[in-house]
Design brief:
Order of helices and strands: HEEHEHEHEHEHEEEHEHEEHEH
Structural class: alpha/beta
Largest sheet: 9 strands, mixed
Radius of gyration: 20 Å
Number of strands: 13
Bound molecules: threonylcarbamoyladenylate, magnesium ion
Helix content: 25-40%
Number of helices: 10
Mean pLDDT: 92
Length: about 325
């Protein structure tokens, strides 16, 4: 174990915050069984205290320490996809702090697939509560520098594990009710899970916008610059329009700029969903930093883009607002 990792474990045991990489986004971690430590997460993020957190585990053998009445479907999903970008919502054990569950009778659990996160979790040997390591409502961080930019000295230590390879947050499946239900889409899709669940049906419709899943608040994952989505075939016309209005426009699209203009700042995104997701948040942060009047993102079409579409819609809805949530 590196000296830095030993230090990270020491800080967690002392009730301090440690940011760490996962394969999805960077997490802002605290000892999940320590309510005072968990309270620091909410303070650092500026997040409302009734929003539940995901507890990260070293492996599936830790499930019993956090969840009860674990259905077969949950065990099957954990066996198939952990470590990986999947969060299971299960009935909680009585001892799980209310600060972690938002006072609910359920708890969110995940084993992340990142070597540094797994090493940290194994050394800590218990649950680490961690939301995405951004200020509330803002774009999730996919590099250590993003965490530094957002949280600075609000976090005791940031472990740098390089850029996240999945790039958007985990798929959340609620297994606490009669039918498994997807609460938040992610790169692990409904059809990936249906293959494992066999005869168990999966309610794939989006969850109602309630406070249970903060990612379901409409304004989320949002840049400060107003962001609009535009189908690829209307992009040129939309941009010509904006430029005629003397707007400075930042663009994210899967193809190169059809024309050059000094008010046009173009970024090419990977054309495949996995690549697009991996780079998305870093690219949105870069475009946001240009301080343009508008960000225009090419709207991808098709079922394989569902999770990306979800994040882009939320980014559009929450964009353009000053830091009222910070
Ligand atoms: O990929 C991820 O899931 C990342 C990395 C760090 O693991 N984490 C993440 O955490 O996205 P956060 O807090 O930004 O989003 C976690 C989501 C929230 O929308 C929260 O409401 C939901 O999980 N959640 C946690 N526990 C829950 C519960 N008991 N019931 C319903 N939703 C829950
Ligand atoms: Mg988040």
């Amino acid at each position: 174990m590196s000296a830095q990792l030993a230090h990270a474990v020491e800080l967690l045991r002392a009730g301090e915050l440690v940011a760490f990489p996962t394969e999805t986004v960077y997490g802002l971690g605290a000892a999940a069984r320590n309510p005072a430590a968990v309270a620091k997460i909410f303070a650092a993020k500026g997040r409302p205290a009734d929003h539940p957190l995901i507890v990260h585990l070293p492996d599936a053998t830790h499930l019993e320490g956090w969840a009860r009445n674990i259905p077969e479907a949950a065990r099957a999903l954990a066996a198939a996809f952990w470590p990986g970008p999947l969060t299971l919502i299960l009935k909680r054990q009585p001892g799980v702090p209310a600060a972690v569950t938002g006072g609910q009778d359920t708890v969110g659990l995940r084993v992340p697939n990142h070597p540094l996160a797994l090493e940290l979790l194994r050394e800590f040997n218990d649950g680490i509560a961690a939301p995405s390591a951004n200020r509330f409502g803002r774009i999730s961080p996919t590099t250590a520098q993003h965490v530094r930019d957002d949280l600075g000295t609000r976090v005791s230590l940031i472990l740098d594990g390089g850029p996240c390879q999945v790039g958007i947050e985990s798929t959340i499946v609620d297994l606490s009710g009669a039918t498994p239900r997807i609460l938040r889409p992610g790169m692990l899709s409904a059809s990936d899970m249906a293959r494992v669940l066999g005869d168990t049906p999966l309610a794939a419709e989006a969850a109602p916008a309630t406070i249970r899943v903060s990612g379901n608040l409409e304004a989320h994952y949002a840049p400060r610059t107003p962001l609009v989505l535009c189908p690829g075939e209307y992009l040129t016309a939309t941009l010509q329009d904006g430029i005629a209005q003397q707007l400075r426009i930042a663009v994210l699209a899967t193809f190169p700029a059809p024309f050059d203009h000094h008010d046009l700042h173009w970024k090419v995104a990977p054309a495949d969903p996995a690549g697009f997701a991996r780079d998305l948040y870093a690219q949105l942060r870069e475009l946001d930093a240009l301080g343009c009047d508008r960000i225009v993102v090419q709207l991808p079409v098709g079922a394989v883009w569902q999770a990306i579409h979800d994040r882009l819609k939320r980014a559009a809805t929450g964009s353009g607002t000053p830091d009222t949530r910070d």
